[in-house]
Amino acid sequence: MAEFIVRVSDLKKYFPVQKSFVERLLTGKMEYVKAVDGVNFEV
């Protein structure tokens, strides 16, 4: 059986969408782009 140096489970990374100050003020929420969602790996 192999030994793993790193084990990652359910990795998620989101980045905020750049909006103008006025858009953020009017909508009242931030939007995000999913770069990685639910990735698993072992090294």
Describe the protein in words.
The chain is built from 1 helix and 2 strands; from the N terminus they run βαβ. With 43 residues, it is of the alpha+beta class. Strands 1-2 form a two-stranded antiparallel ribbon.
Q: How would you describe this structure in keywords?
A:
alpha+beta, two-stranded antiparallel ribbon, single chain
The geometry reads as rod-shaped
Q: In DSSP terms, counting alpha (H) and pi (I) runs of 4 or more, how many helices?
A: 1
- SS-based class: alpha+beta
- Strand order in the sheet with the most strands: 1-2
- The total count of strands amounts to 2
Low-confidence stretches: none
Q: What's the main sheet like?
A: 2 strands, antiparallel
Strand content: over 45%
Rounded Rg: 17 Å
Would you list the SSEs in sequence order as H and E? EHE
What percent of the residues sit in helical stretches (DSSP H or I)? 10-25%
Let me know the average pLDDT: 90
Oligomer: single chain
Q: State the domain count.
A: 1
Q: Distance N terminus to C terminus?
A: 13 Å
